[in-house]
Amino acid sequence: MPSLQNGIYRIKSRASQSQSGNQLFVGVDNSQRRGQRSGHIKEGTPIVLVRKEKITKVEVKNAGGDNYRMMFISQEASGMNLGCEKDNLQKNNKVFVTKQDVEWAIDQGSQQNCYHVQVRESGMYLTVPQNAKENTQVGSFT
Asked: Which segments carry the region annotation Disordered (predicted)?
């Protein structure tokens, strides 16, 4: 039985807070959009920590067992997924926007409503440094 139900979620970072003391969430790096008036977020745009008002929600869909796909639901990121360079994690462990379907293993964390997100079959988990601040890029580390 899957540990997480299909649905729309916001991803909150437990390890970090903004300078004002507010919790930080996963979002899309808006600095990549400067000079771009409107339209879709480009593939390769970094996933960073943002304040609550800048959250990019994701739709989580079970792909079997504890395997999931995470797709962005905002209008400017529609059709895009949360991704990484699965075959090159040792050199590029950053998380970014991609058109490719990427499967993540999601399992129950140590607290209720807390989950570990792992890059499938890599032993590397979605995380940020303990002292992360707003605009810190999300990565995957062992």
From this structure: 20-44
